[in-house]
Amino acid sequence: MQLLYETYLKFLLFFVFLFVKQLSWAETGTNLLTNISYVNSLGYPFKYPYLSSNGLPVETSFKFPSPLPSMPSDGGNFGKRSIDMGGLEVTQISISNSTSHRVWRTYEGGPDNMGVSIFEPTTIPRNFFKLGFYAQPNNRQLFGWILVAKDVSGSNLRPPVDYTEVGNTTTLLIKQEGPAYFWQPLCPNGYHAVGLYVTTSPMKPSLGQNSISCVRSDLTEQSEADTWVWRIKDMTISSLRPATRGVEATGVFTGTFSCKQLNFLPHPPPLFCLKNTKFDLSSMPSENQTRVLFKTYSPWIYLHPKEDFLPSSVNWVFANGALLHKKGNESIPVPIHPNGSNLPQGGCNDDLFWLDYLVDKKAREKVKRGDLESTKVYLHIKPMFGATFTDIVVWLFFPYNGNAHLKFLFIKSLSLGNIGEHVGDWEHVTLRISNFNGELWRVYFSEHSGGTLVDACDLEFMQGGNKPVVYSSLHGHAMFSKPGVVLQGGGKSGIRNDMARSDKCFDAGIGYEVIAGPGVVEPPWLNYFRKWGPRVHYRIDIFLNSVAKILPIFLRKGLRKLINKIPLEMRGQDGPTGPKVKVTWTGDEQYS
After folding, report:
1. Where are the domains of the chain?
2. Which partner from 68, 113, 316, 502 sits 20 to 30 angstroms from 14, CA to CA?
3. How far apart are CA 91 and CA 148, in angstroms?
């Protein structure tokens, strides 16, 4: 009882103290929430327990389930920790408690409303300099990196001549460790800034080069927002990526971020990214190194337990009755050679040719069902971000795409008849691997007309290894990182994507073929640019009329709008094309 009384008295005195203290803070225009770091320093029972960082995912650094493999030395520069980009040597600093210092943190806003943390890299190799700070949401384990640079000519890096404030959190009534001030370097003529400096004081940072460096303009490229890291009210923090991306693009992902605050003046000049002016592909992995990488990170793919239409190898489909049709001569289709050597090469998707299967019902059904035993994945090895990363694009072929199912209001799963069915279905997953150290950074999951990019720290891995788990949706074969149901179309209604574990699964690393990349001889079927299935039209009006009989009139319009959101290929209005026709073949993955 005595202990309870003493604790009560402490709390009473504490709130009286805060009231008096708030009066003095009010004179300076600050408030209780912007002085959280001071309150937390008082200790229990004065420390606000909901502001404690204990238990935040970001407090734990992500580690891969298994040790990373040692790479065979093949004479190249892959995995050598630094890359010569022509005038600059850059290295990748992994953000952790031992390599960086947390400058500032807030406890709300952003993903899951858990806030964001800002880190300054501190463990930097000799003669290398910072280009900016790193930002990460608090709702995930600490996993990220930032590039630092070394001037190899003596004129490619310069200290800033001044700073301009681009935002601060002094007016935001949020739970934070004091206010944060975001500063953009103002660079000498002919130099650009690629990142921001963050302080917890309104005083400008030092102008010394050890604080932050500007980069000569011809060693930079335009950047743009990649993904938003933290957003609250009128402030947004976004990671930056090169504006131009693809296999021949020289822009380099630097690991820095931008800060945009509404109505904050003056507007700063744009931030840039680095540019690999050397771009000789010497940092790309060799054939042997690629083999080791894929053995380590090859995805484990789960098909839905009710999946009727399995994947197969391309050669299996050709050998079991795939036919080449030509416009104007449709009645005399040509059997395709097992290796696809008699397919038309090059050209464009001009509707002149398309593939289909045998008319015989039994033989056609056999091909449509696929063959899991023959399944192999097809790898495209391509440089990304100025050859500082390697994309291993894992392509899968499904001979047939099944029909779609709809969730609409109280109807959990409504079959759309034959809507969504079509011959030939190409899907892919992309492993994005750092050429600095061979670590898997992100995995891209293709989902119909778009996709999702997931950081390694947010992936599910097969037990005892570094193989990410991939879930293929029922009938549609879209790729997802988690099981469950995802509705396509927005809201609480849409086309169902059902994912679940089953005994229909395989390790993509068991059977694969490298079909494209530096020094790779491409198979003939890869350069077939026409349709992998016939153009078909489904009578959506018949389906709508049949369903409308059981729905009130005021719900029919909503159903029609939802149906119109189905992708064209799912509605059967056009036949699918092969991997090399996709815009992502030479470009970056499509995500937002």
Report:
1. 81-275, 287-535+577-581
2. 113
3. 6
